[in-house]
Amino acid sequence: MSEANASTRESLLAEFKAARESAIAKSQIDVGQITERHRAERAEALKAFAEKRDELIAGWKKNSIPEAAFPSILAIEQAKHMEPVVARQAQEQNASLAVEGVPTWDGFLTEKSKAGESLADELLAELDARKAKGEDVSKENGIEGEPLDPGKLKASMFDGIKYEYDKDADSVHYSRTSDGTELFEDKGSRIEMKETSAQTIETALLLAQERFKKGTPLTITGDEEFKKEAARIAGKLGIPIKNKDLLEIWQQARDKAAMGISDEEPDIAPRNGFSGEEAKPDLRKNGPAPEQDVPGPADGNGSAGEGKKGKARSASSREPASSKKTLFKLLDHGSAPYQFKEGESQSYFVKTQDNTGKEHIIWGVDLQRAMEDSGATKGDLVTIKNQGKEEVVVKVVDEHRQEQWKPTHRNRFDVTVADMPLKAAPHMLEAAGKAGYVHDAATGRVTIPAEDYLAAKAELSGLSGSGHFALHQVNQMPFADLQPTEKHALVSAGLADENGLNRRGIATALTSDRLLEMNRARTPDNLKGTAVQPGHEKAATRQAERQEKAPETAKAQEVAQEQDQKRILVRNEDQQAQEKKAGSKKRKAKERQIEDRRIERPARNRQPKIDRGQELSR
Question: Which of helix, strand or coil describes residue 415?
């Protein structure tokens, strides 16, 4: 096998994972059904322990054990009660897989060895040497004792442990019965280790799992050697931890446990990221940094499986492609010393987060080019693919501090921005629906295709200040309610016409709102009040204020209506009074006219008659 095509530990691991998952998928085993049954069995076991809880407490009271110690010893008794159930379920699952022909790590390496794989020979030799020497596994990444045979359980790790309550310190001391060695101390919110063998650490972790709030990550403190060992054992047990710098170790152990690789087998973590011979220790700080592949599934349920920094894997042995792409949220990217360790050579990293909230860091020089080509920015949803290895020549410094150019292989990556679900106010949801975008009123999001989203980001980079302001306004209120100058800014930028936003304008407006939201998230807490609030939030705030003030507004409208009615009634009464008064005056005037006529007629009738005879004689 040529050096260019030689396998690495990480590529063998990836190939084994793919083969195992494929075998499980093809088998007749209903993994979900087994998991559900195991969950029900654990629930029954916990219920059974709860039923004997009062009996235990009564016994402790009879033996004068202080009640302050009860929470701790109840937790360890519960862990002891659950131990055989969990062990039996693990045996049952492994036995079921074996029956269906699912490969084991040992068997996989044996087949590879038969095919002429030299690295498989090396790993098998390490495994045989470790078993032959019978080395103290408490000093290695392992657990004391022989592997369990189906149907055979080892003695409980809780056997031979005694406890003593310290009233002054309000803590419980746990020690080994045989020699009195103190193992650990339960201080309530912290378990302090006194002895750090693998079995003691596992016992303390199982206590912590029952002692503290279920499902909350543990924080491991202390020296580096202990923290790494504790992280490895926590990963094997599936107990979550908070320490970001230990997540790689945790995930590697989790992967081994998920794939049925025992702790006694050779370490499968990558030594470096190159195919072929491993770099010498004195070259690691000056030579090219190892590269890593993208995070992948750790188990059959599709959850992301690499740790924060992940294990490197060759492109030829990645997991089979899924019909549904795994999307990661881009948290950060840039150039830094490899694994952020001082003195290491510069490499490029991409930090992402999967849909479970787990963070991943991928290293690779080619990632810088891939990121620039993608147009992705922090907060975007992306897919990252390792396209395979390409031959390159790099400069390294040898043991004589002389620079040399050596051929090697570099991972080539492809980073693609995915369709973006962006938050939107109700009026924007309606507009997006009319424009043909997929939208969901329940979540308040519009899904913008990747090409439209990238085009919108490019649009925003060259938009005028008035255009940005108009977009901010249109995210808060319908286009029809904008000021004429705001409408003009959007129309002149080609984002709208006289009737409203076009498809391009909708994508640009929602993208602009998202960038405002991201900018506020990056703003220091003491300055968040000065950050511009995204338009969809302002729209929601206004709607909430209207709803909150609705009763007051309704009451005010009711009062106003009553006052209007009163004013109308008074006005009508005044008008009626005026009309009545005017009618009265008119009537009186008419009566006076009639009276005047009556007086005038008699007067006219009383005038003297003229004697015509007298008049003629005169």
Answer: strand
Give the HSE-up count for residue 86: Cα atoms under 13 Å, Cβ half-sphere: 12
- Which residues are CB-neighbours of 262 under 8 A, at least 6 positions away? 105, 147, 256
Chain-centroid distance of CA 533 in Å reads 22
CB atoms within 10 A of CB 186: 25
Are the CB atoms for 349 and 290 separated by under 8 Å? no
pLDDT band at 259 (very low <50, low <70, confident <90, very high): low
Which residue is associated with the tokens 């400069």?
395
Task: Give the chain's largest Cα–Cα span.
Answer: 185
Strands (E), 420-490: 420-423, 438-440, 445-448
Q: Are 113 and 124 in contact (CB under 8 A)?
A: yes
| DSSP characters over 224-262 | HHHHHHHHHHHHHHT--B--GGGHHHHHHHHHHHHTT--
* Other CB atoms within 10 A of residue 348 CB: 22
Cα 186 off chain centre by: 32
3-state helix, strand, coil in the chain (%, to 5): 50, 15, 35
Instruction: Decide: 186 and 169 in contact? Cβ < 8 Å.
Output: no
What amino acid is encoded at 52 in this protein? K
pLDDT higher than threshold 50 for residue 294? no
Q: State pLDDT tens for residues 560-611.
A: 777 878 788 877 877 888 877 777 777 778 777 777 777 766 655 555 555 5
- Per-residue confidence band for 351, with pLDDT thresholds at 50, 70 and 90: very high
Tell how far CA 388 is from the center of its chain. Answer: 29
Q: Out of 70-84, 218-232, 415-429, pick the least confident.
A: 70-84
Overall pTM surpassing 0.85 (yes/no) = no
